Amino acid sequence: MRRTSASLVAGALVAALAWASSPSSPAVAVDPSAGVADLTQDINQILADSRLTVGRAGVVVKSAAKGDELYATDAGKLMIPASNTKLFTSAAAVDTLGLDYRFPTTVLSGGRKLGSVLTGDLVLRGTGDPTMLAEDYDALAAKVAAAGIKLVAGKLVADDTWFDSVRLGNDWTWDDETAYYAAQISALTASPDRDYDAGSVIVSVAAAGGQVKVSTTPETDYLKIVNKATVGTTTDVLIERQHSTNTVVITGTVADPYQEWVAVDDPTRYVASLFRKALAKHGVRVAGPTVTGAAPSGAATLAEHQSMPLSELLVPFLKLSNNIHAEILTKAMGRKVSGQGTWAAGLKVTTDFAKANGVQVLNMRDGSGLSRRDGFTPTSIAQLLSAVRAKPWFKTWYDALPIAGNADRFTGGTLRSRMRNTAAANNVHAKTGSLTSVTSLSGYVNSAEGEPLVFSIMLNQFLSSSPKDIEDKIAIRLAQFSRTAPVDAVSQLRSTGETATADLECSWLKPAEC
């Protein structure tokens, strides 16, 4: 779980107290009809929660069909969006790259083949595929062997030049460096699972024969394991990679099996180690060392792997709020539009897309929302949500958003344990967002009369545990909204099912806890 630094808490406290000195006034109904007046009164009541006394709340609700604003409070104020940033990144990626976009990973020959000997280098070139598994690199190695190559006289070249060499996003905190949700970004990467947590390895511990046994998924010697843990009556264990190294130190006690997702240092070198090991398994020996660099011009293709299309990648990306997918897609957009696989180029694509679609205020520092300097207004998010409804790809994108109260992990996503057995269940399609003192929920809901609504709820600088239940109450109330019929808000706003209260997206907690 993400550690909350003292500086962040102090900063949140100072900012919160400053805002507390000039609290916002409750919103006033913008439509005199009874239904809108009741909605305004009810949302004002929900936002009067004492946990927001020293915090900030920005909310906007609009009719997607009619375009009129049904509720707004501080909707024009710039706020930290957390993973609501992914709404912009994903929409821009689909529009720019296309639903059929795939990431190729290629093995190239840098020399001539003489019998079973490749006289030059063997090149592994990536374009950022976050879905590559160890088994996929193994399949590429098998194809090299099937081509009749048994000895590579030259080097193994890892070509990650499709992206630049900047590995970590703007403003990411140093104490997140080893966390899998803040893994380094590279054009060559590997995932340990089918959540596609690129750039990380699963480290597992279990008590066996009076000792703590350690294993990794995939099996790799790229990490140096220092096991100081002991068998105990409870499991209270810390698995942590040391800063700027690939040394993982394990301390504490282990009674039951436990695992941690750990980001590797230098995913390009990690992938090269997986591929070299796979080559050896298939009888291909590389005489030279592993190096990084660009493939020589004219290198011939020996094998290629194509990722799933972006239309399918959207599901783990948005349902599970995968940060690494967001950053890889950001650099991929930059590469396509300007020939530069950089954050700067990719973020320009996203901001240009947003502005072209009517978004008036935005400040993007990364693609995922990990940066605390990302800034959007609730109105800006609502503008995006309204505009993309007219896009030909909208339905695919809409279906990839988390769906409230649906227990299936790849349907409900980060909303699967929220708003169950309410009018919002299987109705609200929305993106969650969580950081320390930040939570947000923005998306779509159909009213009680079937009217499509867009909404954005952004809560910042609270000092309590995450008040996601406030978001849920508002979303449920919107699902009950009628322009003509009043709603008994007191009896209807109760949400059944568990509400996640962590400071991180629930799917960032491994194993999944929500």
UniProtKB/TrEMBL annotation:
<protein>
    <submittedName>
        <fullName>D-alanyl-D-alanine carboxypeptidase/D-alanyl-D-alanine-endopeptidase</fullName>
        <ecNumber>3.4.16.4</ecNumber>
    </submittedName>
</protein>
<keyword id="KW-0732">Signal</keyword>
<keyword id="KW-0645">Protease</keyword>
<dbReference type="GO" id="GO:0009002">
    <property type="term" value="F:serine-type D-Ala-D-Ala carboxypeptidase activity"/>
</dbReference>
<keyword id="KW-0378">Hydrolase</keyword>
<feature type="signal peptide">
    <location>
        <begin position="1"/>
        <end position="29"/>
    </location>
</feature>
<keyword id="KW-0121">Carboxypeptidase</keyword>
<dbReference type="Pfam" id="PF02113">
    <property type="entry name" value="Peptidase_S13"/>
</dbReference>
<dbReference type="InterPro" id="IPR000667">
    <property type="entry name" value="Peptidase_S13"/>
</dbReference>
